[in-house]
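Objective 1b: paired records.
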Amino acid sequence: MKIADMNWMQVEAYLQHDDRCLLPIGCTEQHAALSLAVDAILAERVAVEAAEPLGVPVFPVLPFGITPSFMSYPGTVTLKMETMLRVVTDLLDSLDHQGFRRILIVNGHGGNQPVAALVAEWMAAHPRTRVRLHNWWNAPRTLAYVKSIDPQSAHASWMENLPWTRLPGVTQPPGRKAPVDYQRYAVLPPDAARALAGDGNFGGAYERPDAEVLEMWRIAVEETRALIEGPWA
């Protein structure tokens, strides 16, 4: 259930019998012909669908993340790493103060990985509260399914091309794209990175049949739900 659909009294009542919650974090960045909000859309949706049968609340997604290398693509917004870590720290402090003791951060953006180190540091100072960072797209079963279909699938390819990340009236390019040279890309400033990555797809087919894409999504929801259920000890 979404926090947006609850009032404070309902949250207070919930905390009398459960202390779990989900905090999705994403990004606003280029995804080739897909929505700029792909990472935020998918992080929040997988969290909501996973938590709904369990009655665990999901907080609104943090829509901005760490993505400096995409800054030459209009519409991309980045946070400094220090800012991101301070924001997540404030969010965890707030949830801990309210009485949430088991917090699953559902991450939709690879550039947010510094949050993993923050979580470990934060828990050391808050031993009564457990926090997990879950990168939904590369959880073991989800990633294995993706790679079994298309080993070269990467950023902005079919694995992020779901019915709710497509844009009306926008047609995906045909075929597939050769993988971007990551070793070169990793050391380039934004303008040169854009020149290398072109439309922004990092490799693999632009689209696959919906049956395959939705099967990937089903697996991702199941893996996320399993983490909510625990164990948390």
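Objective 1b, second protein:
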Amino acid sequence: MRILLSASQAPFLRGGAELHADNLHAALERAGHEVERLKLPFKFAPEADVARLMAFCDGYDVAAPNGQRVDRLISLQFPGYGMAHPQHVAWVLHQHRAMYELFDAASATPAQVQLRAQVLDYDGRALRAVHRLFANSRRVAERMQQFNGVAATPLYHPPPGAELLRCAAEWGYVFFPSRLESLKRQDLLIEAARHLRCPVKILLGGTGGQHARYAQLIERHGLQDRVRLMGNFTEAERVQLYAHALGVVFVPRDEDLGYITLEAMYAAKPVITCTDSGGPLEFVLPGQTGWVTEPTPEALAEAIEALWANKARSAAMGQAGRERVQSLGLSWDRVVETLCA
């Protein structure tokens, strides 16, 4: 089958969405399909540029560009799922979240208000027009139902390098690997460190726009001996950091899916997350594979104290998490079979 794979690309930025597209592309080719990647250069601002790209994609016919037959269009992101093809399958990672659950009417500019109306109209038409509609997680499907009135089927996949993750002796730290951004809420964990009585260390992996603010917060509270900003790490270091963690903390605000939760479970580590963290709640079973706390430093500190106080129980919860994720049978072969059916 000749497949056109559409995804957005913010130039020189790579994250989970880009890894997701790479892995799907590779899995489609392994299955014997001929795949072309269509990368749409996405900018979050100004609003006029978002509207311009949306207008370009709206109804753009890719069934036979320049006479070249395309058997199927698979689109992953806004606004690419607005293009036209009779066999268009959308597997939505997320929509333009700034115009949805992250939209703040009280502080929005007139341009943002106008763009939001355009995006909701566009998405409503585009998502109803696709041949089949999937979501990256149950949380993403819930948002499309809530805002657009469309039903999407959750389709899960394994995180990158899942087969490499392993469990080893814990070295007395909790691990939070993620971009340093406001929505990931590393500051919750930094603030929680002020309330800890146990000697657990906190490793924050990754880089991002909040690095300076988090570094200042750590210094202000005198937590330099407790909390470490690690920056980037290699794939081998990632495997080791998961392997020797006492547990993994992942407390984003309303995450779409969250590879980190799944990675922790493949590494047999218990996960601490929050009641409003979205995607992680689809996998973490409170008291069985981890903790689900209120999004406050005090509640987070209490969960970490429990993690430290009974390490045998924490290890058993990690093993239960590994068994749970393995029972889901996540595989790229299954994803390809579903999207190409």
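The chain has a mean pLDDT of 95. Residues 162-327 form a domain with the Rossmann fold fold (CATH 3.40.50.2000).
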